[in-house]
Amino acid sequence: MVKNLIKSALKPSPTSVYTKILMNHLQLISITSSFNFEWPSSILSFFSAVTPIATASDNLISFDCFLDTRSEGSVDTTSNTAPDSDLRVGQLNVIIYWLLPWILALVVIVAYSVILRKRQKLNARFLTCYIFILFMIFPSITQKMVDQFNCQEYDGELRSRKDLQVYCWKAWHFKITLYVALPGILIYSIGIPAGVLYLMRLDKDKLETLIVKEKFGFLFNGFKRKFYYWEIALMYRKVLMIFISVFMNRIGLIVQALVTLIVLVVFIQVNNLKRPFADRALNEIENLSLLTATITIYCGIFFLSAKDPTSQSFNKNRDFSLDTTMIFVLFILIVGSNILFMVIWTIKFYFIVREMIRDKYPKLYIYVFLCCRKDRWIRENVQRAKNKKNEEIIAKIEDVQYFMKDMKTIYVNHVNYEGHEKFIRLLYIIEDMQPKIDLTIKKNEFRVDGKIARERRFDPEHLRNALDDK
């Protein structure tokens, strides 16, 4: 597995990035479904279909079956509380998950010490393998630690939502939460991404070297090199969403929903501004994923805020209720937006796989996708070259936009710039050349301030000629 990991890091596949975005999206939906927004049964059924896929990586390792040694006859079904002296399975899980990274580190060291004798090679391979393992078990560790704080009031008593027989902040729960779960959150949930980010920053100027790609390639592949750290940002986003789902649960569900909306909107804005993915399509899919989650939370606020019109406290001037039609509309919005995301993701993934087949097995591609017509292959090659040139131009335009934005910030802050004269000259050149390279055509006369003006629209033919002009 590690060999395949290193191989994929050296020769990255675009499908892995698409798969990562899909899993992040499903995990977002899974976290959203855990919010107690009084979802109707139809939406809960939709969430229940998504959750097992989303939590597959989170539940990669499970010790429940090994720890729960109770026989059927030994379970006291008449009691709804656990004895204070009993250490519950969930609490044992927390202890094991706390120790798991250290146990795995020892196992990896021993394994590679036997397999590899060269110290330098051992260090590189160990770091690659261990970071990969940490990232695989990271969601499970975070969830187990945070679940210890997930308490809710039942029958006037504060109980753990994961094990209703456990009273919160009493006996073993207090000890495990304070001395195991809390340090675990600080060390693992916050510390693991921070530690990996620190190691990546040390090698940020060597990202194209073989040894750095072996160590961190699976993390920064798919992103622009200046955003090599973006996978860490996505990990912290996941941690933040888990924190909101647990720690803000008792503050208020409306507050929880609004904070979640703010977080999602901020990430949409940041993704739009930074556009961290190397492929433009990936940035668009990430935006669509975040927008879908935002729509889901926004619709959830309606379910959360609606009141029963038959209750005595219902005020027609202040409160509102959801009838069958409105529930159906919200259901369509939630499910429809998620289905739309899946359809767009599937289409783009299909074309990525098709391109991979085209590059690796051209004869098979001609036979399967082009019906054995080589003339279509030639036309595709021409169109493909134009599309590639078009994407390169778009990437350059985006880079220039970022540069111009940075320069604007410099001048807004009244900071002197060494290349002042060159930059001003560049602005004048752009201003002078802009009318000469206009790629629009005139359309539809109309009047502005009594003068005839013309609406302008984009002209693909002009752009095509410009792209072909060498």
From TrEMBL:
Keyword Nucleus: no
Transmembrane regions listed in the UniProt entry: 95-115, 122-141, 176-200, 253-273, 285-306, 326-353
Keywords per UniProt: Membrane, Transmembrane, Transmembrane helix
Protein name in the entry: Uncharacterized protein
Source organism per UniProt: Euplotes harpa
